[in-house]
Amino acid sequence: MTQTFETVAAIRFGYGFRAGEPDIRDAGQLLAQLQGPDRAMLRFPTPGFMERLDILKQYRIQVNRVKELGDIAKDDLKVTKRARRVLVSEDINKRFARAILSPNGFRERLATFWADHFTVVPKGQGQIIAYGDFMDRAIRPNISGSFGDILTASTLHPSMITFLDQGRSVGPNSKAGLNRDRGLNENLAREVLELHTMGVGASYVQKDVRQLAELLTGLANTDHGTEFKQNMAEPGVEVILGRSYGGENAVIGDILAFLQDIAIHPETARHIARKLAVHFVADNPDPALITHIEQAFLRSGGDLPTVYAAMLEHPAAWVDLGQKVKQPFGFIVSGLRALNVPASGVADLGPRELKQMYGLPMVTMGQSILKAPGPNGWPEEAEAWITPQGLAARVQWALVASTAFGGETDPRDFVDTTLREVAGETLKFAVSGSEKKAEGLALVLSSPEFNRR
Amino acid sequence: MAHTRRKFLANTLALGCSAAASPLLTPVTFASAPTDKRLVVIILRGAMDGLDVVSPVGDPLLAGYRPSMLDGQHSDLDGYFALHPQLADLMPLWHGGDLAFTHAVSTPYRNKRSHFDGQDILEAGDITAGSDVRESGWINRMLALIPGARKELAFSVGRENMLLMRGDKPVSSWSPEGRIDLSPQAKLLLDVIYSKDPLFAEAGQVALTLAGQLNVSSGEAMGEEVDMQNIMQNMARSNKSQRAEGLAAFAANRLREDTRIAAFSIGGWDTHLKQTRNIRKALRQLQGAILTLKQELGPVWQKTAVVCMTEFGRTVRENGSAGTDHGTGGAMVLAGGAIRGGKVYGDWPGLAPENLFAERDLMPTNDVRKYVAWMVRDLYGLEQSGLETSVFPGLDMGRNPGVIL
To answer: DSSP letter string over A333-390?
Structure first.
């Protein structure tokens, strides 16, 4: 049977079907999800940056008090520690709950896509606490703006500054550089060019990296978030890709100007077009699809809704499903959607429940939460995920989730509502032959049809 | 709903039994190679205090630095260094020449003392910040130097994201308690479902085979159902078993077959507080892992080198809470029949204040990577030039300390 628009839209561009949500009938409905307020975030709001910083400051204060006063201050420290834990686990809880419960699957998928494109791997409690702000303040509000905006927001966010060592980078001829004999750190500059904009192998050279590293000096983390510190900034003009930025006095405006320029560079357009096609459509997408997205990017100056529309209007985006494998996060989210887990089953989970339901299974599936292998994010190719261990973990999770949430669902109905015409005859036969309901459901969730998209 | 949520929690406890559940441990990873020498790398996460584990009790200054931590219980090794009492069961290995240490070692990492960066550098084998090499681990890059090294399908089972193993060369992994609790009938059906998709068919077959073998070998009946009772029983079984021993037993099981290189980690070394008490748990795990490897490897132990390394050492002086803080120079633990044991290797800098690094840490006089590089050179006959460029970029291997027999 040929696959319908509704099915491909739900599975390729969303997190799969969930009972009670209306079908997506045309590309306009997918794009409409991007308009208006971020309802998933309003439903599951998270604290802002200052509140997060405050918890960190409190922690530092309490640690020092324990050092000074000893045991009598320990209870206060415990309270602060608990506040840290709660914040971190709520962030994770909400990331899953939004994706599972939101009817705007395309919007959720895009949030995941951009968070991976601008990967930050937070290390240690402080960075993990700040990371929730990166997700909700730098990424989510910017997925329907221009590429320049999301690039700027993520590059300047304290999480990125810390992750890619920008705070350690000092202009050698800046005041701080001359006084303290400190120098450049190229990490952020390199990744901005190599991963976030033009892509590896693009036409920049080492000199451009070096010049960009000089331009980026001055960006640093303070107790109020990212600030531009004049005394760390390399004075003088920087020439990057043939364009000059800055003057005798370094200002943050020069950095912003560069980011807007590089955001609409032709090689950036190509790189982003390719990444979107690879993430949503196929590990090896039709070159015509990439070119079509790329042209829309160039034409619109990186206006993201225009870029997404170009992807969705191209016939190559609607080839049959099965081109890709869901990553573990998408597998778990779509599994719980298929099982129609009610809001009460995924909202307000405690740290222990989160660990059992998501954390440990994600580790075994190969996608430990917040621990991407590097700034290049998670791998896209199917082979990276369907390993013996990764697949075993999916099967085991499917069984446990089906046992817990399957209720009286008949597996023969489940295969139809979850996969519709995508379910092969073999799968339908096997499901009808299973002896126990939970196992029947688990077979559906373990199937290639469900794990591919 | 609270009911089903609790039920989910109970059900997932089966997954919770996985070694990954423990912050102390990460799952075992494997690589197979065409040689009969075995290498086991154990990463000791959290910065092991070398001065406590292999204690320089012969230095009169030690007591002054650590007034609350010396209890005289350490076992004498060579008249100067003494072994922590929690490793006393390893003394027969020491006397038998199957246990050695290096002291005053570190990676090239200096001054920042962050666990994360320290472990990254330890596993990457490279200090260059932001370089591509940091994206891969030294074991993986070493595999490129071993001719004919390949992913051994029969055992290339597993997962894991240890940086140590990451890279271009195929390496597989499996958590020893990975399980599939489907009934035998459902497993057959799963096999059928996967038959038409080669990617799933191949992975599924290995997964079902290995999960089956492991369930049987751990004494569990095939086809147990996922219900509360079974899960609780399995939990109890898992809790009883020493976790590092479980990893070591599984590693040994694979090493007896085609696997030649195995790695896992033991955490819990970050003893900022009441170290005398708090270091024991980690040491028990380490001792258990080494003894299990010896026992389970049988005759293969003679061809095996075990190297345990940590991201950095700890401060020479104890801190205000009877613990130690992040330092620089530390120690490595070496074991196995392939090791020239009964010796503490290294160039001991002494504990005199002027000899300390940054006036606080044991001065590192040798690079951790130097010992590892010579070990793998002697085990696998690798070219020194390759080790100094691609495996451990920028390392000067210097003179062979002769750790391998």
So the answer is: HHHHHHTT--HHHHSS--HHHHIIIIIHHHHHHT--TT--SSTT-S--SGGGT-SHHH
| Interface residue of A123, A395, A426 to substitute, partner B, most B CBs within 10 Å | A395
| Structural domains of chain B, count | 1
Test A165 with B130 for CB contact under 8 angstroms. yes
Q: Which of the pair, B213 or B199, is modelled with greater confidence?
A: B199
Question: What is the average pLDDT across A18-44?
Answer: 96
The token pair that represents B223 in the structure block = 């086809």
Q: What is the rounded distance in angstroms from the CA atom of residue B254 to the CA atom of residue B297? A: 9
Written as six digits, the tokens of A327 are: 């990553």
Measured between beta carbons, the chain A residues lying within 8 angstroms of B17 are: none
Q: pLDDT tier at B229 (50, 70, 90 boundaries)?
A: very low
Q: Looking at CA atoms only, how far is residue A389 from chain B in angstroms?
A: 5
* Confidence check: pLDDT of A46 > 90: yes
Residue B398 has pLDDT above 90, yes or no: yes
Q: Where are the alpha helices (DSSP H) in B169-227?
A: 184-194, 198-217
Whether the pLDDT of residue B218 is over 60: the answer is no
Q: Is the pLDDT of residue A104 over 50?
A: yes
The domain of B25 spans 19-178+242-391
Contact B316, B48 (CB under 8 A): no
Q: Between A and B, how many CB-CB pairs are < 8 A?
A: 188
DSSP structural state of residue B76 = E
Task: Please tell me whether the overall predicted TM-score, pTM, comes out greater than 0.90 for this model.
Answer: no
A420 token code pair: 């519709």
Helix (H/G/I), strand (E/B), else coil: B288: helix
A interface test, pick of B8, B131, B185 with most A CB neighbours within 10 Å: B8
Token pair of B355, please?
A: 């000899």
Q: What is the pLDDT of residues B315-347, one digit of tens each?
A: 999 988 788 988 999 999 999 999 999 999 999
Touching A: B residues 288-347, CB under 8 Å? 320
DSSP-assigned beta bridge partners for residue B25: B266
- Report CA-CA distances (Å) from B176 to A364, B83, B173, B296, B365: 11, 31, 9, 15, 38
A28 touches chain B (CB under 8 A): no
What are the extents of the domains in chain A? 1-163+264-453, 164-263
Residue B73: inside a domain:
yes
Element (H, E) at A206: helix A206-216
CB contact under 8 A, B7 and A363: no
> Looking at this predicted complex, what is its ipTM?
0.94
Q: Which residues of B touch A434 (CB under 8 A)?
A: 185-186, 189
CATH number, residue B93: 3.40.720
Q: Which residue from B minimizes the CA distance to A188? A: B130
Instruction: Decide if B224 is inside a domain.
Output: no
pLDDT tens-digit series, residues B368-381? 999 999 999 999 99
